[in-house]
Design goal:
single chain; TIM Barrel; two-stranded antiparallel sheet; 10 strands; binds NADP nicotinamide-adenine-dinucleotide phosphate
């Protein structure tokens, strides 16, 4: 498994597991649980969730899936912007820890920037670190201007990742944000690597994947895995698809294939406003 280093020096599996919409439908619960657990078996030990997902039901399902396996996984969860204040964050964090059934969250992210000043959120993250409730903190959906502002606040340099929308059809961050993060050795956690499934039906990707003897999902993931300092967190509630996705790890793309994908899915030619889902 390719591993990506955080600024703190700890390394993460470059292919993780997303969990948005997991835990929301009891009929799918068993399959989703099996997929998550199988993912851990295959080395996809980074699990991404959020207090927002299913109003905590995703965190609860993750908690059940990792029961007895705490030492094997790296748990990322996210705090709502309206809970990112010095008063609200401790309670939000306790609620996430309780639902996840863990003492310490490995990486706690600000889900997106809201009305709470970044400096206040950083102070709240640091207090949680000092009290041993989180190990590291980071952000999500912050554009370059916001990252520059974060870097300027007291303690802001402690940020460990920026979780961003990044896939073959959403390459805007390559213009300025991704190089800025790379200069600082801050990895990107690429969310919605399949554009929530839509990318996998794109005729140019379907055709290209067939020519390469891969599936569209494998090409989409292998392309992300080829990017420096990028972790991908695809979501699936299916054990079979989980296996299919994990096989992308054993199909690294050649420089020629990367060039062909570049021709099919163009890189930005100028600044692009940060896109979010
Ligand atoms: N920070 C943020 O603001 C933010 C925003 C969005 C997402 N995220 C995180 O990123 C994770 C991934 O993004 P996402 O859930 O939005 O979308 P995604 O991973 O791009 O796509 C998930 C969709 O693709 C389908 N899928 C998965 N593997 C497949 C395969 N091999 N073949 C065909 N279809 C497949 C899934 O269906 P099945 O489940 O039925 O397989 C699901 O419908 C989220 O779960 C969440 O943890 C973060």
């Amino acid at each position: 498994m390719k591993r990506i280093a955080l600024p703190c020096g700890e390394t993460l599996s470059a292919l993780g597991q997303g969990t948005w919409r997991i835990g929301e439908d009891n009929r799918r619960r068993k399959g989703e649980m099996a997929a998550l657990r199988h993912g851990i078996d295959l080395g996809l030990t980074l699990i991404d969730t959020a207090e927002m997902y299913g109003d905590g039901r995703s965190e609860s399902l993750v908690g059940e899936a990792i029961a007895g396996r705490r030492g094997e996984v790296f748990i990322v969860t996210k705090v709502y912007p309206h809970n990112a204040s010095r008063h609200a964050m401790p309670t939000a964090c306790d609620n996430s820890r309780r639902r996840l059934g863990i003492e310490v969250i490995d990486l706690y992210l600000l889900h997106w920037s809201g009305s709470v000043p970044l400096g206040e959120s950083v102070e709240a993250f640091e207090r949680l670190q000092q009290s041993g409730k989180i190990r590291y903190w980071g952000v999500s959906n912050l554009d370059l201007r916001q990252m520059v502002a974060l870097e300027a606040v007291h303690g802001g340099a402690g940020v460990q990742t920026n979780q961003l929308l990044y896939n073959l059809t959403r390459r805007g961050i390559e213009w300025d944000l991704l190089p800025w993060l790379r200069q600082r050795h801050i990895p990107v956690m690429a969310y919605s690597p399949f554009e929530q499934g839509g990318l996998l039906k794109a005729p140019r990707l379907v055709k290209y994947a067939r020519q390469q003897g891969m599936t569209p999902a494998q090409v989409a993931l292998a392309w992300l895995l080829a990017q420096d300092g990028v972790v991908a967190i695809p979501k699936t509630g299916s054990r079979e698809r989980l296996e299919e996705n994990a096989r992308a790890l054993s199909r690294p793309l050649t420089p020629q294939q990367l060039g062909e994908l570049n021709a099919l899915f163009a890189a930005p030619t100028g600044p692009v406003s940060l896109e979010m889902i």
